[in-house]
Write a structure and sequence with these properties.
four-stranded antiparallel beta sheet, 674 residues
């Protein structure tokens, strides 16, 4: 609910320390001219926006409102940071009406700095010659509004005009100054050109009148609107992710950093430390991957690893114990993916969240990836490429990450997976013919990236066309070059709709450094490749690595764009078939184990209108045995609903009934059917 307060009350609260900023808030960055504009708006009655406060209900680190000078000694002083436990925060909120600024930091800080004199802000009044309308002059000064009196808001006193420093007005309010004190300690020290005794008295009277009017505005409780939100840590994070559009884009890990700081774990310092110690990973270090991996370990694969769980359940002790270890495993995992050619670079990885199950595999393995055995390697390869080409990680669901992490743990321990449906889902590839490759033409598509990385995997590492050197893992200059240049196709095949359609597909793309891509421009393939061959006599070996037919070097083949593409698509499809489709039976034989009770019946259950219902499922007949009667799964579900609600309602029984597997995980019976 919207409420209001005065600027005076805001400043008093900041001075008393009952208003602070979250530790992760950006610094005060407003130029002084924005402060002038702010007070100009206040005096003119222009809405300056509402301030949003939060009452946190969790441990958090906060910092003071910026009171450093803009120049000179102390401008780079570190702001004080306080750490509060959940209990301390609850007490401060209850006793002191403690609040933290969620939105409006720049405005609140500007007002505080002007009132306390950190920034000099002056109200400069008009002289008679400055008025544009004679009717205003007909009013006495006391009858005029501050907007009518205002000449400008400035950073300096104007020697030609009455000037009032806002910090002086605040001091008058706070200390209830008498006129004699105001005259002696403030006004007499100001010099105005052309003052005489009569002018002095008039100016002092004008000065006092303006001070009174300013005090009235600054005491006005309706001037400053605010919202006060009572928030748990989950909503707190959501607020910043969705509404902090005028500041930096905050992630939930920024809120987590403030929460952990209160418990003596400096997440930001740890992130900086990792980047400094590992420059090869600095540009693409994904701290969220590390945090979510940590959440999995703490929850032992039985809890969600979403933002809510992380913010509510993880504490500084968890991070102190695991952060450095997981960072090491993170590096090892990325090195494994690159050294074994699963990725050409981190920025081109199809699904970064697939790193999490791989780190968990490394954790369970208890040693580095070089100690994997043959069964480990074959499953990782099959799981990795099947997950990409079946698009299992689109949407990056927590359930998918947890399921894969749990199963990779079993593989690491040499155990078999009991869920056949899991293998069925891995086998649902999105590319089932060579023509399917042409459907992917955008870098945002994980399958597009997957295709380019598949070339890298098959060739055991892509190389540069200019010198046959292996492409660098951290090369940010890699671009997805058109093998037949885009502008060349537009001109040469302008009337060929099929050529235009396939022009930007992944089949006509490969990864090379940006400089090479620029030099290629819109030349015919035979021409630009011959130019490169003059510098690199082994270019043909490089083209083989990129799975590009060598016929492309011939001038005659410049006309056969679709033929070259078809040959490359056929080659890639054969690779995919041999690596995944042909391996499905072998993977099942080596890594799947049929349940011991697969031919009997198992206990199943369902929940309806807060009641839990027990039954059994006959695994051979697929019938549900409910109260000694046999039904189809849907028939049994309808029977249950009719008994409880009195209404016969049709429903899918395969989605109604559930069971617990041998890992005690709740699943729908449809997974048994699959």
């Amino acid at each position: 609910m919207e409420q209001s307060e005065s600027i005076r009350e805001l400043t008093q609260s900041i001075e008393k320390g009952t208003i602070s900023l979250p530790e992760f808030q950006r610094d005060f960055v407003w130029d002084i001219t924005k402060t002038y504009d702010l007070f100009d708006s206040i005096i003119r009655g222009i809405f300056i926006g509402a301030i949003i406060y939060g009452k946190p209900s969790f441990e958090i680190a906060v910092r003071e409102v910026d009171d450093r000078p803009r120049k000179g000694q102390g401008k780079n002083r570190k702001l004080k940071i306080d750490k509060f436990t959940r209990e301390q925060i609850a007490n401060k909120v209850k006793v002191d009406n403690y609040r933290i600024v969620l939105d409006g930091q720049q405005r609140a800080t500007s007002m505080f700095r002007a009132f306390t004199g950190i920034d000099e802000v002056w109200f400069v009044a008009k002289n008679e010659s400055d008025y544009e309308y004679s009717e205003v002059l007909d009013k006495s000064l006391s009858e005029q509004s501050l907007e009518e009196i205002l000449y400008e808001i400035s950073g300096n006193q104007d020697n030609e005009r009455i000037s009032v420093k806002l910090s002086d007005v605040y001091s008058m309010m706070q200390e209830n100054w008498r006129e004699s004190k105001i005259e002696k300690e403030i006004f007499k020290l100001q010099k105005y050109n052309g003052d005489d005794d009569e002018g002095y008295n008039d100016n002092f009277e004008k000065y006092l009148t303006i001070c009174d009017k300013l005090q009235d505005i600054f005491k006005e409780s309706k001037l400053l609107n605010y919202y006060l939100l009572d928030m748990d840590v989950d909503k707190f994070a959501l607020f910043f992710e969705r509404s902090n559009s005028k500041g930096i884009n905050l992630k939930f890990t920024d809120i987590l950093a403030a929460k952990l700081y209160a418990g003596d774990f400096n997440l930001r310092s740890k992130i900086d430390e990792f980047k400094e110690s590992n420059p090869n990973f600095a540009n693409h270090f994904n701290q969220e991957i590390v945090v979510r991996t940590l959440a999995y370990i703490i929850g032992d694969g039985r809890e969600k690893i979403d933002k809510s769980y992380i913010l509510k359940k993880l504490n500084h002790e968890h991070f102190t114990e695991y952060w450095d270890k997981i960072c090491t495993w993170y590096k090892e995992t990325l090195n494994f993916l690159f050294d074994n050619h699963y990725i050409v670079s981190q920025s081109w990885m199809p699904y970064e969240n697939m790193i999490i199950p791989l780190i968990i595999f490394r954790w369970e393995l208890g040693r580095d990836f070089s100690q994997m055995n043959e069964k480990h390697s074959e499953f990782i390869q099959y799981w990795y490429w099947s997950s990409i080409f079946s698009q299992r990680y689109t949407g990056s669901s927590n359930e998918m990450i947890i399921k894969d992490a749990n199963y990779l743990r079993k593989v690491a321990k040499g155990e078999r997976i009991l869920e056949k449906a899991y293998f069925n889902r891995l086998a649902r590839l999105q590319i089932n013919t060579k023509d399917d490759f042409y459907d992917y033409n955008r870098k945002a598509s994980a399958l597009y990236k997957g295709i380019l990385n598949l070339v890298n995997f098959q060739s055991k590492g892509l190389v540069s066309w200019e010198n046959n050197n292996k492409l660098n893992f951290n090369d940010n200059r890699l671009e997805d070059h058109h093998i037949f240049p885009k502008n060349y196709i537009k001109k040469k095949f302008k009337d060929d709709l099929e050529a235009q359609d396939k022009m930007s597909s992944a089949i006509n793309r490969t990864l090379i450094p940006k400089i090479s891509n620029i030099l290629i421009s819109d030349k015919a393939p035979s021409k630009y490749l011959k130019e490169i061959e003059l510098k690199n006599s082994s270019l043909r070996e490089s083209l083989k690595k990129h799975l590009i037919p060598l016929d492309i070097m011939e001038v005659d083949m410049d006309e056969y764009f679709l033929v070259i593409l078809d040959e490359r698509a056929t080659r890639l499809f054969d690779i995919l078939q041999k690596m995944l489709v042909d391996k499905q039976t072998h993977i099942l034989q080596n890594h799947y184990k049929e349940r011991e009770n697969q031919k009997g019946s198992i206990e199943i259950f369902a929940t309806y209108q807060n009641q839990e219902i027990q039954a059994r499922l006959d695994l051979e007949t697929e019938e549900v045995i409910y109260k000694n009667e046999h039904y189809s799964p849907s028939g049994a579900a309808s029977k249950v609903k009719e008994e409880i609600s009195g209404k016969a309602t049709s429903t899918s029984g395969w989605h109604f009934w559930k069971y617990k597997d041998e890992e005690d995980e709740v699943k729908l019976i449809k997974e048994l059917k699959e």
